[in-house]
From TrEMBL:
The keyword Repeat applies. It comes from Ruminiclostridium papyrosolvens C7. It comes from the Bacteria. Residues 1-28 form the signal peptide. This is Galactose oxidase. Keywords: Kelch repeat, Repeat, Signal.
Length: 447
């Protein structure tokens, strides 16, 4: 019997064991684990989860097509309820909560006109109302909320800014940023808006601008040490934390920087122990920052600004790219996302205990929590079959690339570092083009 045949048999045994273990985990009492909750009715990703009146809302996004559907989750009953749909389907949009209403703003990929359209949801009446449209088409933009007013900032090919006042339903053009920004983040501290990093269509950005709504002026601030886009951001103790993202050459950044508006300085902090791509989510809870779904793997990383150290928390039950992540009543919810070519409707709940694992500032090796090793068998369009022996992290990396390549947000090829027959070379790399892959099969085995 060949090694490959043995692996097939052993993989089946491991798969059955994983099913038994996973089933028991659902009922585990340990608070430092992820627990499976009721799934959504519709699988979706590329939308944010928002919280209003102790309920979680998932609005629009992308599934098998661009969505206009809306779902509301009640953690007390573990029930999802389908709510009234939007008039416009959309993803890559902004969702803002203010005055007891939810506003869906701009976006792309959906109903014609969605990139300027604004809709207001009233949870009391379960109705959507079409509001005044923005002056400028926007996707991959940022939003901010200051004094009850919504600011739409930048976007693909755009440096303009506009302010929306729900009281009179009017969008007003404001002073523009000095540069075009897309795939960036905005943060609010002490009534000022900070536009950070991003991409201008040609270059990754490290520049930072501060907007004062009182004077309608932008002021250039100290730039980050690293250029980056599609990163995560967190505000804690009046400081801004920029985490991960994409930088020159589509490399994955694991670096972190802290910005202090009082001193206008950026400080490089301890990098994330595991790489973090552009598909994770950052949330703040109990004075800590949590990264969930980084690069589509199951890892959950916890950062303590007081000690500048990282800790591994319990891994999710499923890997997720671009999930919705919400914090409610001391718990973290990971909702939907995309993984391994499939869009997810599953939901997980996590109660952090801050006991964590062995991060220790990233100086120790991460625990093996991303699954067993596997034989990845790729069938090319010309019928050639290629095999790669990958560990859990390597497999997650490939699946993340495959997902992102399907929507054009990753390079058109993947690089495998070949581990056998290297001599006399320093390394052997094989480049696999996305459009040359017909199918692939994953055959898991225990090391």
């Amino acid at each position: 019997m060949s090694l490959k045949d043995k692996l097939k048999i052993f993989s089946a045994m491991v798969f059955m064991l994983v099913i038994v273990i996973s089933s028991s985990m659902v009922f585990a009492a340990d608070p430092n684990t992820w627990t499976t909750k009721a799934p959504m009715a519709t699988a979706r990703y590329l939308t944010d989860a928002v919280v209003l009146n102790n309920q979680i809302y998932m609005i629009g996004g992308h599934g098998s097509t661009t969505l206009n559907s809306v779902e509301q989750y009640d953690p007390a009953t573990d029930i999802w309820i389908t709510k009234a749909p939007m008039a416009y389907s959309r993803y890559d949009h902004q969702v803002v909560v203010t005055g007891g209403k939810i506003y869906a703003v701009g976006g792309g990929g959906g109903t014609y006109g969605c990139d300027t359209a604004v809709e207001e949801y009233n949870p009391e009446t379960n109705t959507w109302k079409t509001m005044a449209a923005m002056n400028t088409r926007r996707s991959s933009f940022a939003s901010a909320l200051v004094n009850g007013k919504i600011y739409a900032i930048g976007g693909s090919g755009v440096n303009s800014v506009e302010e929306y006042d729900p009281a009179d339903n009017i969008w007003r053009l404001k002073a523009s940023m000095s540069v075009v920004r897309q795939q960036f983040k905005a943060a609010v501290i002490n009534g000022k808006i900070y536009a950070i990093g991003g991409y201008d269509g040609k270059n990754y950005l490290g520049s930072v601008e501060e907007y004062d709504p009182a004077t309608d002026t932008w002021t250039s601030k100290s730039p980050m040490h690293n250029t980056r886009s599609r990163f995560e951001i967190a505000v804690l103790n009046d400081k801004i934390y920029v985490l991960g993202g994409t930088t020159v050459g589509s490399d994955v950044a694991s670096s972190i920087e802290e910005y202090d508006p009082l001193t206008n300085t950026w400080t490089t902090k301890t990098s994330m122990p595991a790489y973090s791509g552009a598909s994770g989510r950052a949330v703040v809870l109990n004075g800590k920052i949590y990264i969930v779904g980084a690069s589509g793997n199951k890892l959950v990383e916890e950062y303590d600004p007081a000690t500048d150290k990282w800790t591994y928390d319990a891994p999710m039950l499923a890997g997720r790219n671009d999930p919705g992540v919400a914090v409610l009543n001391g718990k973290i919810y990971a909702i939907g996302g995309r993984y391994g070519g499939a869009t997810l409707k599953s939901v997980e709940e996590y109660t952090p205990t801050s006991t964590g694992g062995t991060g220790d500032g990233g100086n120790e090796n991460p625990p093996v929590i991303t699954g067993n090793s596997a034989i990845l068998e790729i069938t090319m369009v010309n019928g050639v079959i290629k095999e790669y022996d990958l560990n859990g992290v390597e497999l997650d990396s490939f699946l993340t690339w495959y997902d992102n390549s399907s929507n054009g947000s990753a390079p058109s090829y993947y690089i495998f570092n070949k581990k056998n027959n290297i001599k006399p070379f320093l390394s052997r790399k094989e480049y696999i083009a996305y459009n040359k892959i017909a199918s692939f099969e994953i055959k898991e085995y225990a090391e």
